[in-house]
Amino acid sequence: MRVSILPTVFVVIGLLFSNCSGDVKDIPLKNCSKISGMPGPEDLAIDREAGLLYVSSHERRIKDQEGKIYFLDLNSSPLEPKLLEVEYPKNFRPHGMSLLNQNGKYRLYVISHITLYKEHSIEVFERTEKPSAKSKAGKWKHIQTLQDPLITSPNDLSVASENEIFVSNDHGAGGLSTYLFQDLFRISRAEIAYYDGKNWSSLGNPLYYGNGILYVKRQDGKEYLYRAGFGLGAVLKFDIKRENGKILLGDPKQIVLEGGPDNLEIDEKGTIFTATHPSVMKFLRHASNAESHSPTKIFSISPDDSIQEIFSNSGELISAGSTALTYKERVYIAQVFNDFILQCQL
User: Fold this and answer.
1) 0.70 cut: is pTM over it?
2) Domains annotated on the chain, with CATH
3) What is the DSSP string of 186-232?
4) Rounded to whole angstroms, what are the CA distances from 4 to 62, 93, 232?
5) pLDDT digit string, tens, across residues 50-62
């Protein structure tokens, strides 16, 4: 989820969600500890083969700050974040990201807000050398910048191949005043943008505040697109159909959750994990004050669409959790603002 520290935004959104500020009952996980040193670690991506966790990091509480990508070797002890050494593009402010492994070629696709509310891009980084004892993450190079008017306000993306990218916008076209107008009247203008390797198109399905997005191909060959509808308090599941080289989305099924869902991640068994924000009012207070707690819930979504709440915290342990990702019986929980990731035993 993305919020810039602007009081006007807080007032408008806060009024809209004034009924969403209740307390939550804690559902703990065992053996939790913090991995510090990464401001605003909003999104995660994992290389399961190498056990490397990539982190999108941006300090959102300080104006005009640029961001970086960090990585963690999950098979090392203690876990220490390392900066991904690469030549970052100018005005790099990372948000959602997606890791692609296509025939052994690794690429990181990262949303960047070059100018807040005005200019956005997808920055593409490619691994040029494999991980080694000297370089745990290998060597990376920035190779491409993707931009298009349909990327109106990108929040998250899911990359199926070099020629297929799905982008979830959280607002429609326009600047800050337009965003505020859409928020004030809960106008559904945030569409899904689609890239086929050559051209961009819109897959429609406008929402009021779209969030995480995830492309999934099941073992039976069926394809689905999951999208977090923050304003709906639900994850939408679309059947994907392909006709004459074009992609079509079926009518969505709503998977209702408690709170506004953020990013979506999938494990080896096909289970999807998402973090939700149960209280928008507390989230907004936390955005401007690190000491003001904002609750976090983590849900799993099975391939049959059944859900299970696996973690809930009032904010004392972690506030404004944004991403949940699992690896070797542990879950790693990212957050929007503070400077650490929480790891717990499943």
Assistant:
1) yes
2) 7-345 (2.120.10.30)
3) T---EEEEEE-SS-EEEEEEEESSEEEEEEEE-TTS-EEEEEEETTT
4) 9, 12, 21
5) 999 999 999 999 9
